[in-house]
Amino acid sequence: MREEERVVMNVVDAELAEMMSAVFAAHREQHQLGEGIAELWGRLGELGLVRLTGSEESGGSGAGWAEAVELLRAAASHGVKIPLAEHDLLACWLLETAGLGVDDARRTACLLDDAGVARGVPWAADSARVVLLWRDGTGYRVTDAATASLAVTAGHNNAGEPRDEVRADLAALTGNSVPDNVVGQFTQRAALVRAVQVCAALDRILELSVAHVRERTQFGRPLAKFQAVQNLVADIAAESALARAATDGALAEALRSDWSSPYLDFFVAVARSCVGHATSVVVRNGHQVHGAIGTTVEHRLHEFTMPALSWRSEYGSVAHWDEVLTDHATAAGADGLWALVTATGT
C-alpha cells in the first residue's frame, strides 16, 4: 500500500499507534496541562519519536507521514502541547533539504519577512535553535541559528501555547541556498500540520460530547434522549468527519506527488477552509451540549476547544484560505472546476 493511501485510510501499525497513545496518556496522568514537557521530550526521544520522519542517515527514525500524522493526532487527542511537528516536519526537514546537519537540539522554524521578522513563531523561546528561511538577493536560504543569537519576544496564542516574535539581522545571516519551491512546501506542510491537529481536537470534542449526553440526565432521562441534543451532537460528528476527509485528501495529494502537485494549493485550501468552518460548529455545539460545566477549568473540554480555535487561524486564517479557495475555483471556471476538484486536468 502506498504511503498516501495509508494516511487516508489511517492504517498505521496497531502496536505503534497504541504505544504513541499510551505515552501521552501516561504523561497526562502524571502532569497537569502544559507541565513536564522536557521530561516528555526526553521520553519521546528515547522511543525514536522526536525525529520520526528524519532519514536514518541523519539520525532520524526513517518513518513517513502516516506515522507522523498518527503521532500528532495522539498528542492532540490527549491535550498534550509539544512542538513535535515544528521540530520534525518543519525545522529538521528544512535542514535536511538544505543539506545542513541535524543534532539532538530542539528546534522550531519560521519564514522571515524582508525586514528579518517572523511573528507567531511556535515555541521559539523554548527551543535551543531556530531554523530560519528567508529570501536574499538571489533566492531563498536556510540557516540553523542559535536562539540566543536572535531577538525573541515571547508571546502565546489563545490556547496558551508559545507563539513568539523572532527578529534576525538579515545582513549577518549566512546559510545554504534552497530551491524557490521549498517556500511553498514549507507553507503547505505547516498548514496541513495544523489541519491534522485541529481534526484530532474535533474528534476528541465529539467523544467528550457523546460521553456527556449519555451520562448526564435531565428531567429523569439521559440528555441523549432529547432530539435537540441529538441534533447538536450529529452536527459535531458530521463537521468533524468532513474536516478529516478534506485534510486526508490534501495529504494524499501531497504524498502522491511528493509535494509537487499543481493541485496541491487548492487541496490545502479546501482542507483548511473545511477545518476552519467545522471548528466553529463543533466548538459551539460542544459547549452547548456540555452547558456550564464545559466552561470550567476542571473540565477537559477547553483543552480541545481552545487549541482548535487557535490552530485554525495559524499559517493562514479561515478568511485567507476561503479567499485562496475562491480564487482557484474562479480561475478554473465552469469548464475546469471538475478537473480541479478531482485533480484530473492536464
UniProtKB/TrEMBL annotation:
Kindly indicate whether the keyword Flavoprotein belongs to this entry. Answer: yes
Q: Which cofactor does it need?
A: FAD
What are the Acyl-CoA dehydrogenase/oxidase C-terminal domain coordinates in residue numbering?
Answer: 189-309
Record domain Acyl-CoA dehydrogenase/oxidase N-terminal: where: 3-99
Which SUPFAM superfamilies did the record assign?
Acyl-CoA dehydrogenase C-terminal domain-like, Acyl-CoA dehydrogenase NM domain-like
State the UniProt keywords alphabetically: FAD, Flavoprotein, Oxidoreductase
Does the keyword Manganese belong to this entry? no
What family does this chain come from, according to its entry? Belongs to the acyl-CoA dehydrogenase family.
Q: What is this protein called?
A: Acyl-CoA dehydrogenase family protein
- Natural source organism: Mycolicibacterium septicum
